[in-house]
Design the sequence.
């Protein structure tokens, strides 16, 4: 079911009941920041050496898993303890051994009083390419501590591949049907944590800096209102400008000053905009004349909107200027589906829009469409797959799927098609991927 379908069902249910840069080749790839030479289209082999100390095994496991989940690095499986001449102070180690294992780089992390000292070795040149001291906060293996380690992984991935990793992020989602609750989980599936105490939450959306989450809330009277949760304080407040009736699918503009949302009363729904943190009037964006216009998604520069509209008699994806003008059809009929395309999400790099299309068997599958040439790529085929949300790297997507029998969240690499399961509890839907939360 689409976001709007879930809202309608819920409403009805309630109404019814420090280092130098390497050789400069930045025009091609930032990976040369540490001097590595490899084909930018390949996955460089990286060996994470054994980390000493009481929490070393946890640190090493998190770094390895983060690199693996990022899909840009080939984690070399080898145990540093088996190599007595590993790089240490005053000794370079046997780099040819690591080269034969397929490692282009070694990651050597050493705990310090304040955090972690990390050195990245260039195996081909048999030298340390870059070092940095990273802080670690919180008790070992706590949520805060693990997020700090994720942030280290992300920066190391930037050094090696030229693209920052996505480990230091979280996913917002709702769980349950009637009385659904809002949750946030780390990008590796750890620490699923409820946000607030509201039952009936739907359609979460992240603030551009990851400090707040906007969502809609189904009340006991059957209408929906927009709330903003402050993740630092745990408090939530209702946006005053929205009217009665159906108010859902809120999304922050990239400047965080405005929220665009879906509003409907008796016939059809339209997009409206209002100020996010100050009192101000609501401004109508679309004029649907009884049709449904819903699920807005901003372009990265905030100048355009993608949204779902039924103005042709069936749902399709449209794009328009941010004020609703110059609307144009983005998707069109494709053999093999049911003329039902909905729930767009604009990639952070601005190149693609993800959406779901209903097939002839009634199931939804995820697709991307290029803004350059309108070419469409289908990403999924197993189960029913809905509500895709882009990761900050514009490569990975989080989505809900029935492929294991119950609705769960999964992450897919849009380039390779590789996927992994994120949640295990069932009844999970409407995910939203956060921006980077730690640097």
Sequence:
């Amino acid at each position: 079911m689409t976001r709007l379908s879930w809202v309608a069902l819920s409403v009805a249910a309630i109404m019814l009941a420090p280092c130098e840069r390497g050789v400069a080749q930045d025009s091609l790839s930032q990976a040369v920041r540490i001097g590595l030479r490899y084909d930018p289209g390949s996955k460089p082999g990286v060996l994470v050496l054994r980390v000493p100390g009481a929490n070393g095994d946890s640190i090493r496991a998190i770094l390895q898993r983060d690199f693996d989940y990022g899909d840009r690095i080939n984690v070399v499986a080898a145990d540093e303890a088996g190599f007595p001449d590993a790089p240490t102070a005053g000794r370079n180690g046997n780099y040819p051994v690591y080269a034969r294992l397929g490692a282009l780089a070694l990651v050597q992390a050493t705990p310090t009083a304040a955090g972690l000292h990390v050195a990245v070795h260039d195996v081909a040149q048999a030298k340390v390419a870059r070092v940095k001291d990273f802080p670690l906060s919180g008790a070992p293996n706590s949520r805060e501590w693990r997020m700090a380690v994720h942030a280290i992984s992300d920066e190391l991935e930037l050094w090696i591949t030229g693209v920052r990793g996505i480990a230091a992020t979280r996913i917002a989602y709702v769980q349950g049907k009637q009385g659904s609750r809002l949750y946030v989980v780390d990008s590796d599936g750890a620490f699923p944590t409820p946000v607030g105490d509201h039952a009936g939450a739907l359609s979460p959306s992240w603030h551009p800096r990851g400090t707040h989450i906007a969502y809609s809330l189904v009340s006991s009277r059957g209408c929906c209102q927009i709330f903003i949760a402050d993740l630092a304080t745990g408090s939530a407040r209702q946006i005053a400008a929205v009217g009665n009736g159906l108010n859902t699918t809120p999304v922050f503009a990239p400047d965080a000053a405005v929220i665009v949302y879906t509003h409907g009363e008796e016939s059809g729904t339209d997009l409206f905009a209002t100020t996010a943190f100050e009192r101000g009037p609501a401004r109508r964006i679309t004029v649907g004349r009884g049709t449904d216009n819903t699920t807005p998604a901003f372009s990265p520069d905030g100048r355009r909107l993608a949204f779902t509209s039924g103005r042709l008699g069936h749902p399709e994806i449209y794009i328009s200027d941010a004020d609703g003008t110059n609307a144009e059809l983005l998707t069109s009929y494709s053999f093999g589906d049911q003329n039902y395309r909905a729930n767009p999400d604009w990639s952070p790099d601005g190149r693609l829009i993800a959406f779901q299309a209903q097939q002839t068997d009634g199931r939804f599958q995820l697709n991307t469409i290029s803004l350059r040439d309108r070419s469409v790529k289908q990403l999924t085929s197993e189960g029913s797959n809905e509500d895709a949300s882009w990761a900050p790297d514009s490569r990975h997507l989080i989505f809900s799927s029935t492929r294991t029998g119950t609705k769960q969240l999964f992450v897919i690499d849009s380039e390779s098609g590789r996927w992994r399961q994120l949640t295990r509890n069932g009844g999970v839907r409407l995910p939203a991927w956060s921006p980077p939360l730690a640097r």
